[in-house]
Sequence to fold (804 residues):
Amino acid sequence: MIDIPASLPRRHLLASSASALAAIGMATWTRSATAQAPAARPLPASASWKNPASVIVHSSTTVETKRSAFGTSIITPADQLYLRNNLPAPDASIVADRDAWKITLQGVQRPRKLTVRDLRSMGLETVAMVLQCSGNGRGFFPSKPSGTPWTVGAAGCVVWSGVPVRAVVEALGGLSPGMRFMTGTGGEKLPEGIDPKTIMVERSVPASAMGDALLAWEMNGEPVSLAHGGPLRLIVPGYTGVNSIKYIKQLAFTAQESDANIMSHGYRITPPGGKGDPSQPSVQEMTVKSWVNSPHPESGPLREGWMQIHGVAFGGLQAVKGVEVSIDGGKNWQKARLVGPDLGKYAWRQFVLPAHFSPGSYLVTSRATDMAGNVQPEQRVENQSGYNNTSWADHAVKVTVA
Amino acid sequence: MIDIPASLPRRHLLASSASALAAIGMATWTRSATAQAPAARPLPASASWKNPASVIVHSSTTVETKRSAFGTSIITPADQLYLRNNLPAPDASIVADRDAWKITLQGVQRPRKLTVRDLRSMGLETVAMVLQCSGNGRGFFPSKPSGTPWTVGAAGCVVWSGVPVRAVVEALGGLSPGMRFMTGTGGEKLPEGIDPKTIMVERSVPASAMGDALLAWEMNGEPVSLAHGGPLRLIVPGYTGVNSIKYIKQLAFTAQESDANIMSHGYRITPPGGKGDPSQPSVQEMTVKSWVNSPHPESGPLREGWMQIHGVAFGGLQAVKGVEVSIDGGKNWQKARLVGPDLGKYAWRQFVLPAHFSPGSYLVTSRATDMAGNVQPEQRVENQSGYNNTSWADHAVKVTVA
Fold:
């Protein structure tokens, strides 16, 4: 059972940890429902280095990449990558001596505490992957679920470097018997006077996910920034962002899933109108998805002529096989071309289709297929919190050509 | 013949365009021979956004990435990428309306002027490639050639997006007969009172290089910055950086190489003590090269134990087949592992070799082999200007383990 202090309404805890923090007076701020001028909202202190022209600041813990800012160079630069912190970022002092950061390893034959310096000696791997918030696409749900109304920009394709989790586990003698989950705990500072389980960031994924997981100290060629989880972040390729634990202070192989609220009740596929509970599917593996980034009304007026329709496509745990594009809202489809380097199955691919546009209105969208033959669906799966929206209909862009 | 005003000593023009500019009073500054505190030198205005902790500022037109700043995530972030401009960057007004930038196409069946907006409609491709200054490694020449004493940091692996040159040529009816070179001309503002040919940035490469060349408007996911040649840069993968013309204002297919000084006399493999002339080999295609980035004395004190030796390797026009590492200055070699995504033949690969270090001194280096079987040489090829240094002996790092 989750122990909730009487002074804190349970719905706050279940709705979002940011609300819970607000209720106990920790400094966060959120977008006013009536706010109309995104440019006026300041970037969070930990992410003050982001490019304000490329992002939409929703709150002090949520920043989205503008759809028109996504380029065609596959890797999303750090200064335009989305930000979504479940709790405020820890004090910047934790990145002052990165190599001294400690992580406790549990559920292995020889549990121990390791520093980043230790980890650096144990192995090195690099992976390119889509980092995507579980709620990316929530903004397209007509039900307007609570939470940040992301459209497409709570996602990016980034490169991580660190030690493979499997190398660390091997060095510590392998898993203890019966351990079925890999459970990561974040190093955020928790407020006093509240049961940590109600607010801490702790997530479990199947232990098999350690196969390609990293304990990463580098993102896109630079030490992982505080905003993105430095000095050390657990990276679980193919899983939604919440499973890649920032400021990771403990990695435990466990017999059961974590009973922290964020795992047991949060991030569940809850029927509309319902409340999250452990019997519902957890939001973990990503599935096949794509969207068009250009043309887009944000990019300015469109003129008659040829355009290179382009966007991104990814498969979650599998590579993308192909992408089709429609300019009439899904009545007719044409095969797009995948272009640029292939950075591996966890990365997104960039697709391009040249098309001639006469004056008129168009509904432009894309539909990806993964290597297992799964096709991106037309419709979203309705759920209370607006998770896992992969609907190609929702991601369609209406453009007018003069 | 090159026409040089009587007031300008010829040696200035041949030594470097920066010196020539200084001679006629254009604002540039260079590192004083006695300067000892790199941190005190300011970043050039056009590159003020670079990370000062990751770079060495040599002059107002030359900035080098620190060897210890190279990460292991393959792509070099823009804020630590080297900078080398042959002339001062144009005024920032040229990136105010990027789509309006014009380029003249010549030596094709239907020569014409095109805007970036036109180019965007004509095609889209993305390429990852090593961008490397011809003089990278010059600092290892005992002869101390004039020019920036780069060690390894006048190189990076970056991603470019733009229209394939071949798509533009096809759209303009193909090449005119007899055109053997692709000649790009930069859009830098040239000083009055001096023959443009003596100072302009104009380079020719074989017309066949257009096969993978781009006219690029995006680098690493963002519009190409002014410092790196925006709004439009010619990208010639596999060739040294000087051939990828910034602010390109003309792309001409020509029967002869350009007679601009930078082509006819500059960037030539000139015998030691000699002067550049058109009979000498031009610095164009890159060849197989690698170096170790870690361990490195800059990274701090090294302790006994396991280390992951890592670095980068590339083949120029060919992919890398493999890399060997030596910790005893080349007496013994061990095969390293290529790790991380493979971004194509023009990109560099990251290599890793775990090694146990007892207390002592080590001379750590690497030797790459390309797909054609070319092996990175032990010795540099001596030349007057210190170009094309691929010597694995020169790139060795001496480290001491306590």
